[in-house]
Write a structure and sequence with these properties.
Elements: H1 2-38, E1 42-47, H2 55-66, E2 71-76, H3 84-94, E3 103-107, E4 118-123, E5 128-132, H4 138-144, E6 146-151, H5 168-182, E7 207-208, E8 212-221, E9 226-232, H6 233-237, E10 246-251, E11 254-260, E12 272-276, E13 281-286, H7 291-295, E14 301-306
Helix pairs in contact: 2-5, 3-4
């Protein structure tokens, strides 16, 4: 009698377990849908417009008009005016921190209204880029790869009949970005563009030889005046320097020595230093001052560091 009761209990337990499993499987798509509704789509917005007028707000208004639930993250609107290289490196630095499906709307467009293409690209990480085809995707493509590209020519993906020749940020890129964020079929924006035909920046790579490292200062770091270089940390360490060592450097034609340190406060105030920045590149800085201003160095500038003796 006891054995029979145990057998029946075990069978009932298995049946209940199977029922719970089936219910969980059936419920999973509903939970995914709830999650998608809970977290709105994200547009990351970057321009060189600045914030002194209404340009950024107008673009955001266009996006909200098409997709009211969208979440807009302002990456920066203080990109050096007309600097495609700065836009490219900010995109390169930001994209790893955003998930697949994020839409990046980028307007650094010095040739607005010309024959340059307005495009939507999808990276192999599943992120979308709505921007002018002028080299902004160069660094992202080198790291992540580009899966497909479509030109924006469909009037339904633009602001309408009042299309201007000088404000494509409002009239083309903002509405197109909102359509992608809304889940519209991005391949309907216009004809496909071969990935090989994308415009790419011609960037000079740092070179390492028996004498040392020849490189380039490519930018300054925001308002602080630190110098950003095209030297990866791995290449710098191949020169043989360790933290705390003095390093001879020729930058912008000026010969000087500075310590290689982990952070700015490792040297006295107003002293120059070498460090590895937050993006993994060699940087030149002055503790609590501007290297660019103190030493009169502006990008682009040549940089040479000999091998350690």
């Amino acid at each position: 009698m006891t054995v029979r009761l145990r057998t029946r209990s075990s069978s009932a337990f298995v049946s209940i377990g199977l029922a719970v499993l089936v219910f969980a499987i059936l419920l999973a798509p509903l939970r995914a849908a709830e999650s998608a509704q809970k977290y709105p789509p994200t547009i990351v917005f970057m321009t060189d417009f600045g914030l002194v007028d209404d340009s950024v707000a107008l673009c955001r208004g266009v996006m909200y008009g098409i997709m009211p639930r969208v979440r807009i993250v302002d990456l920066t609107h203080q990109v050096t005016p007309f600097s495609i290289l700065d836009g490219a490196r900010f995109l390169y630095g930001a994209t790893p921190y955003f998930p697949s499906g994020t839409v990046f709307v980028v307007v650094i467009d010095p040739t607005v209204g010309s024959t340059r293409k307005a495009i939507i690209a999808r990276s192999k990480r599943g992120q979308y880029f709505v921007l002018p085809d002028n080299g902004l995707l160069t660094l992202v493509e080198q790291r992540d790869g580009i899966e497909a590209v479509y030109e924006i020519t469909n009037p339904e993906w633009m602001i309408g009949s009042k299309l201007s020749s000088t404000f494509h940020g409002r009239d083309i890129f903002s509405p197109a970005g909102a359509h992608v964020a809304r889940g519209d079929d991005w391949t309907k924006a216009g004809p496909e563009v071969p990935v090989k035909d994308l415009v790419r920046l011609q960037l000079k790579a740092a070179t390492l030889n028996d004498r040392g490292l020849n490189a380039t200062v490519i930018a300054t770091d925001g308002p602080f005046g630190n110098l950003v270089t095209n030297v990866d940390a791995d290449d710098f360490f191949k020169l043989g320097y360790q933290h705390g060592q003095e390093v001879p450097v020729t930058v912008g034609g000026r010969e000087m020595k500075m310590k290689f340190v982990k952070t700015f406060s490792d040297v006295p105030l107003n002293e120059p230093l070498l460090y590895i920045d937050s993006r993994g590149h060699l940087g030149l800085a002055v503790n609590q001052n501007s290297f660019a201003a103190v030493y009169g160095v502006k990008p682009p500038a040549e940089l040479f560091i000999p091998k350690a003796k």
